[in-house]
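Deliverable D5.2: sample structural annotation.
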Amino acid sequence: MQAHTKKHRTDTVELRFIGPVNKKARAIETLKSLGFEDMNNAVPWRDAYLEYSEEELSGKALAGMRYREGLTQVQLSEMTGIPQRHISEMENGKRPIGKETAKRLGKALNASYKVFL
């Protein structure tokens, strides 16, 4: 089996701070001048796709992560022991992704299994 050699982006970081309210604007402006981006208006990704059911969203996340890693359904099946047709059904929202399956997928796709739940 081929070794996975794709590297993930490591050139960004998310910061969270707790501090005085009256210094928030100054802290944001200071960080912006250093190249940071204010994410206060960001929308959680699940809220951006209200037209999809939970199963469909999990399937879209699975398909996207598989694509990101450059894997086919067959390759992912071989890595996880999950039948390829089950992966197809999960990606199409026709099969739910259970916790144990999510953990296997997360490990193979270098992602948190919680994305699939």
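Annotation notes: The domain at 45-116 is CATH 1.10.260.40 (434 Repressor (Amino-terminal Domain)). Residues 54-68 form the longest helix (15 residues).
The annotation will be released with the project's public dataset once the embargo ends.
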